[in-house]
Every structure is written in structure tokens, then in C-alpha cells.
């Protein structure tokens, strides 16, 4: 992925608001209602073109397909793989202290369509064509632009094992191996098409304060090193500089007062093969953690994508605040090692977001403007 050689480049967490008509079609599909698959595929292709254009107009340098084809950043894989059925429930320690808020956030129409199925049989790729369709739609949307200025998201084996419980494999290691083998095909296809690969792994941070009812709590000090080991094996043949590892503490507007500190698990995360480390740094719970880069030195071959825009509020950050956040990281790790991002995506699951769909674009415009201000000061 491109580095910030003569100015601070911008990107974001991957998912973006889907058009209302596409949301309804995907809701119908989730509910098992009849859906014209030809019309759905055509609408997805149109939506990808629309979303790419909106990113470019907003001033984003490294764009995504917005995950228009996916019901969610993680559970899309369950549609494409065999072996999944049923549904689990997300349990977060912070929400236990705010049950009324939990009802408002998770007991609504949008949340009803979030599925977290369970492994009940052998995991294998069922739909080999799905990644190819995503790639073709994205290529058509970016036109003559360099695919190195674009990325496609894919979930990690460890996140799937954390979110989707296992009732089939004898051990967690066996489950992780099966997931890694299934995901490798998608990873390789994205890289082969010339795009950058964003590896979405919220489990690395979230397992410290939450779990799925079907999988149970995990020990973060054991889970993270194992997760990185498995991911490194799954990506062993892929170029590190084309991969970005995204971690977060959950893209929901909860209190997050039970979140673990980044410093607690950053060292094993830095052992990832991926060059780019992407983390939250804008929201009130984690904005202070820029200080960790004073204590833990960024390896020479690595670079960072700090979130400088909060993805779960409707406040639009002032561009000067965005610039200040960018400059703080540039001073610590070097300006060429910083690309400015958002804390997470804006459409984690279809129809589900903490940020209004119109405000998203105001935030991305502010991100681009803040990066310009920072660039003027840094160069």
C-alpha cells in the first residue's frame, strides 16, 4: 500500500452506508424472503460504483468497495462457507453496566438482522465465485485508477473463531486451521487482483471485554499470539506491504469502560506479517493511547493507520483537530509511516451503524481536509 511520501494519505475502515433499497433487499434475503438474485447482483455493482465515486469526491486516497455485497464485515464468510448454522449472541462486559443502553443499541430492527452462526459441520468454501464478483465490481468502479490505491476487506480466522462458536471440531486449534484454509483463497484472490488486503480482526482487542454466547470468554494473553500465528500462516505467501491488519474494540456506541489497553496486546500484534497496523485512536476511550508509541517502538518495516475520526458518533471532527491527531503520530513514528483513517467502518453490518449515513460523508471530508492541513505543516 502507498506510503505518505509527500503528503498524508487518507483511508477508512472499509464498510460504508449501503443505499436504502439495497439494505431492504439484503434484509429480505437474510429473512429468507424471495429475492431476485439478478437484480440484487446488479444493484450491488451499481452501489459499488456509487460508493467509490463518493469516496473520491470526499477526498479519500485509498478507497474500498464499501462492502456493498456483504451482510456484515465478518458473517459474510458464513454465507460463502459450508458448515455454519444457528445463531449466537454478543456479550460485552461494558454493556452489563448499562442495560437500558444495551436495549437501545441491540434490541432493534437493524440488530435483528445480524447473524452470528455456529460451526456445526466441516468448514469449506462453498461459493468460490463471490470474491471474484467483488473484485470485478471494484475493478469496474475504480476504472483506470491504480488498484494499489484501493483495498478490499476480509475477516480473519481468529475473529471468526471468536464470533462464531464451534460445535464440530475437536479443538479450537482444529477450528482455526479449517477457517484459515478456507479464507486463504479469498486473501490470495484480492492480492492477485492488485488490491490491498485489509484483515479485519476486532477479536484481538474485543476478546478482552466480550465474547459470543456460542464461543465463551477467551484469555487475551493466549488468544492474541495464537491468532497472529494462525494469520501469519494463512498469509505466508502474500506480500506484507499489501496487507493492513485492522483491530478495534467493537464499533458500537457503548461505554467501553471495560476495554483493555492497547499496550496490553500490541507487542504480539506487531509480529503480524502485515506491514500496516490499523487501530482506533479517535474515540474518547482510546484517543489517549497515542502515548503507547513512546513506549513501544514501531518496527522499521511497519507503518500505522491510526483512526483520527470516530465512527460511532455524529459529531464531525474539526479539520484542525484531525490535523493535530495526525501530527502527533507523525512526530512519534515518522510522517511517511502514517496514513490517516477512521476508527472503524460506517456499515459494520447491513443497515446497522452508529453514525448517520449523511454525516459519514461530512466526516470523511473533514478527514481529507485535516490531512491537508497536517501535510502543509509536516512538509
- Secondary-structure element string: EHHEHEEHEHEHHEHEHEHEHEHEH
Spatial shape = globular
Structural domain count: 1
The second-level CATH architecture is Alpha-Beta Barrel
Could you say which structural class the secondary elements and strand pairing correspond to? alpha/beta
Percent helix range? 40-55%
Predict the CATH topology. Answer: TIM Barrel
Strand content range: 5-15%
Q: Trace the largest sheet across and list its strands.
A: 2-6-7-9-10-11
Distance between the termini: 21 Å
Please give the largest β-sheet.
6 strands, parallel
Averaged pLDDT, please? Answer: 96
What report would you give on this structure?
With 379 residues, this protein is α/β, with parallel strands linked by helices. The protein is built from 13 helices and 12 strands. It has a single domain (9-378), classed as TIM Barrel. Helices cover 40% and strands 13% of the residues. The strands form 4 sheets. It has a 6-stranded parallel beta sheet. The longest helix has 22 residues, at 37-58. Helix 2 packs parallel to helix 13 (357-378) and helix 6 (157-163) crosses helix 7.
Key traits:
single chain; 40% helix; TIM Barrel
What would you say about this model in short?
The chain is an alpha/beta fold and 379 residues long. Helix content is 40%, strand content 13%. The protein has 13 helices and 12 strands.
SSE arrangement:
Blueprint: E1 9-10, H1 20-30, H2 37-58, E2 63-64, H3 76-80, E3 81-85, E4 90-92, H4 99-106, E5 118-125, H5 129-142, E6 150-155, H6 157-163, H7 172-192, E7 196-200, H8 203-206, E8 210-212, H9 220-234, E9 243-246, H10 266-269, E10 276-279, H11 292-295, E11 303-306, H12 319-333, E12 339-340, H13 357-378
Parallel strand pairs: 1-12, 2-6, 6-7, 7-9, 9-10, 10-11
Antiparallel strand pairs: 3-5, 4-8
Amino acid at each position: 500500500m502507498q506510503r505518505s511520501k509527500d503528503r498524508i494519505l487518507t483511508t477508512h475502515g472499509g464498510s460504508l452506508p449501503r443505499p436504502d433499497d439495497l439494505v431492504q433487499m439484503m434484509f429480505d434475503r437474510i429473512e429468507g424472503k424471495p429475492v431476485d438474485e439478478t437484480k440484487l447482483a446488479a444493484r450491488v455493482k451499481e452501489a459499488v460504483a456509487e460508493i467509490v465515486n463518493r469516496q473520491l469526491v470526499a477526498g479519500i486516497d485509498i478507497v474500498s468497495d464499501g462492502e456493498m455485497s456483504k451482510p456484515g464485515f465478518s458473517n459474510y464468510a458464513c454465507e460463502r462457507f459450508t458448515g455454519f448454522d444457528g445463531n449466537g449472541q454478543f456479550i460485552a462486559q461494558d454493556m452489563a453496566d448499562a442495560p437500558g443502553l444495551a436495549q437501545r443499541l441491540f434490541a432493534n430492527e437493524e440488530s435483528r438482522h445480524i447473524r452470528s452462526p455456529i460451526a456445526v459441520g466441516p468448514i469449506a468454501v462453498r461459493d468460490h465465485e463471490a470474491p471474484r464478483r467483488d473484485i470485478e465490481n471494484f475493478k469496474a468502479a475504480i476504472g483506470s485508477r491504480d488498484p494499489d490505491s484501493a483495498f478490499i476487506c476480509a475477516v480473519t480466522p481468529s475473529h471468526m473463531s471468536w464470533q462464531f462458536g464451534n460445535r464440530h471440531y475437536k479443538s479450537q486449534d482444529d477450528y482455526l486451521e479449517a477457517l484459515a484454509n478456507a479464507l486463504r483463497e479469498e486473501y490470495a484472490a484480492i492480492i492477485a487482483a492488485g488490491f490491498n488486503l485489509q484483515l479485519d480482526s476486532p477479536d484481538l482487542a474485543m476478546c478482552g471485554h466480550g465474547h459470543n454466547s456460542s464461543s465463551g470468554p477467551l484469555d487475551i494473553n493466549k488468544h492474541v499470539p495464537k491468532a497472529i500465528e494462525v494469520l501469519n500462516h494463512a498469509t505466508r505467501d502474500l506480500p506484507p506491504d499489501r496487507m493492513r491488519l485492522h483491530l478495534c474494540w467493537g464499533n458500537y456506541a457503548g461505554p467501553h469502560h471495560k476495554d483493555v489497553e492497547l499496550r496490553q496486546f500490541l507487542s504480539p500484534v506487531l509480529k503480524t506479517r502485515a506491514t500496516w497496523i490499523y487501530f482506533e485512536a479517535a474515540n474518547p476511550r482510546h484517543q489517549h493511547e497515542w502515548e503507547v508509541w513512546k513506549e513501544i517502538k514501531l518496527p522499521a518495516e511497519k507503518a500505522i493507520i491510526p483512526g483520527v475520526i470516530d465512527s460511532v458518533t455524529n459529531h464531525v471532527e474539526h479539520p484542525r483537530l484531525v490535523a493535530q491527531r495526525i501530527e502527533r503520530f507523525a512526530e512519534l513514528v515518522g510522517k511517511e509511516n502514517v496514513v490517516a483513517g477512521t476508527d472503524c467502518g460506517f456499515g459494520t453490518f447491513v443497515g446497522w451503524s452508529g453514525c448517520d449515513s449523511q454525516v459519514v460523508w461530512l466526516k470523511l471530508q473533514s478527514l481529507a481536509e485535516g490531512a491537508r492541513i497536517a501535510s502543509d505543516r509536516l512538509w
